[in-house]
Specification:
CATH class of the largest domain: Alpha Beta
Number of helices: 19
Structural class: alpha/beta
Largest sheet: 7 strands, parallel
Radius of gyration: 24 Å
Number of domains: 2
Helix content: 40-55%
Strand content: 5-15%
Shape: globular
Number of strands: 13
Mean pLDDT: 86
Strand order of the largest sheet: 4-3-2-1-11-12-13
Length: about 425
């Protein structure tokens, strides 16, 4: 009963001035923090495990901020780019009161609870972090983001927003025969490729496959998250009698991605538009498919649908039911020659090189740029494209994160730093 009462009053008053002040006491230290940590937080979390996870996560966040100070002299720059909203605080710690400019590269919706994978944090800490992230965003000089829909959500922070889509470098990708050779499939087989991290909704695609001609095969390229979902998908395939028509391919190196993809006939995007972060997204895979010359079949998400319709690249589904997938895949396969040629034409226009002048205008006359993230940026292709563009224009770039070795950048103007332990 007490837990219900505390939760009720918290949800009712958390957004008031008094509520915000009381929440802020949690981080003042001493008896205030002790009261929050020992008497209030346990009643607002759903389990002991969640409470412990919240504490560990916030502790890690604070420790990383402290560690970034150790690299202050090495990381000082004219412009700081925080990759994701969580990383702004690191740049702020280094920037202090200098005249350096601060840019945030927002690649997902700012709210953790607007995303597909549920945050392990307690709701009170999600709210608290969101308040911190919003405050930090308002202090940035500029915001970069990946889609027009997401940019609309970000305009409320009163900071200039520019859309820097995840276009690929311009390249000629001849059609390969990789997938047919790997799975010993004839030219009569139609290959439907799903190139993505798959998290949900794939059962409907499998049931649709059961209703499509037996000459249609489905190939996944990527991971299943959580790992247990793969077993669920395989069981669905077995129950539908299509196990011999679905093939699971592990991720391939980025520089091989388009070559592998070009051996399929069409590409599909499996996302639930009801999830806000999905609805406003414009994922890398759209441009991977386009660069590979593949027609696209996707549920309606504004930015994805706009590109598909503008360049006549494929089919936008009305929903994500089994019937929608049957009709969408059938239509895309029936017109694959036209859509494929349109994709090749679009690939010549939607290139990273076309976005470089805009990026350089935002960076201005800076001589040094530091990019921060609490993740491995050595594996982040967007960050590496930004770094290469800056370097090409004579700017020294430092990339700081939980980085592993980067084996595809050998540029004296680009230096990787590891957060100190």
């Amino acid at each position: 009963m007490l837990k219900r009462i505390i939760k009720f009053y918290y949800s009712r008053y958390k957004n008031t001035k008094v509520g915000s002040w009381l929440i802020s006491l949690r981080h003042r230290g001493g008896i205030f923090t002790a009261i929050w940590e020992r008497l209030i937080i346990p009643f607002l979390t759903d389990s002991e495990q969640q409470y412990k996870k919240t504490g560990r996560t916030l502790q890690l966040f604070a420790m990383s901020c402290e560690r970034s100070i150790k690299l202050k002299d090495a990381l000082e720059a004219d412009v700081y780019i925080a990759h994701t909203i969580q990383s702004i605080v690191f740049a702020k710690y280094i920037k202090k009161d200098s005249d350096s400019r601060l840019i945030c590269d927002v690649v997902e919706h700012p709210r953790l609870d607007a995303r597909l994978i549920k945050s392990p944090l307690a709701s009170i800490d999600i709210d608290l972090l969101h308040d911190i992230f919003e405050s930090n965003l308002r202090k940035c000089n500029h915001i970069l983001t990946v889609s027009s829909s997401l940019s609309e959500h970000l305009k409320k922070y009163g900071v200039p927003v520019s859309v820097l889509e995840n276009y690929r470098y311009k390249e000629q990708v001849p059609r390969s025969n990789y997938l047919r050779q790997k799975y010993n499939l004839s030219n009569d087989v139609s290959l439907v490729l799903c190139m993505s991290t798959i998290t949900q909704g794939f059962e409907e695609v499998i049931r649709a496959l059961n209703r499509l001609p037996t000459s249609v095969h489905l190939i996944t390229l990527g991971k299943f998250v959580p790992k247990e979902y793969l077993a669920i998908v395989k069981k669905a395939a077995k129950d539908c009698g299509v196990s011999d028509r679905i093939h699971f391919l592990d991720p391939v190196p980025y520089n091989e991605l388009t070559t592998v993809a070009s051996s399929a006939d069409i590409g599909i995007i499996v996302r639930d538009p009801k999830i806000l972060n999905n609805y406003i997204s414009l994922p890398n895979r759209v441009f991977d498919y386009i660069c590979s010359g593949l027609p696209i079949c996707s549920p309606y998400m504004p930015d994805i649908a706009k590109i598909i319709n503008q360049y006549r690249l494929g089919t936008v589904l009305e929903g994500i039911t089994e019937d929608d997938w049957v009709n969408g895949i059938s239509n895309t396969l029936a017109n694959k020659e036209e859509y494929s040629q349109n994709a090749k034409n679009a690939a010549n226009e939607l290139t990273w090189e076309s976005k470089e002048p805009m990026l350089m205008d935002i960076i201005g006359d800076a001589k040094t740029v530091t990019i921060f993230a609490l993740k491995d940026l050595a594996k982040n292709n967007r960050t590496k494209r930004i770094a290469r563009t800056l370097s090409k224009n004579g700017i020294s770039v430092k990339i700081c994160g939980n980085n592993t070795e980067c084996d595809d950048i050998n540029d004296p103007n680009i230096t990787f730093y590891q957060f100190p332990s």
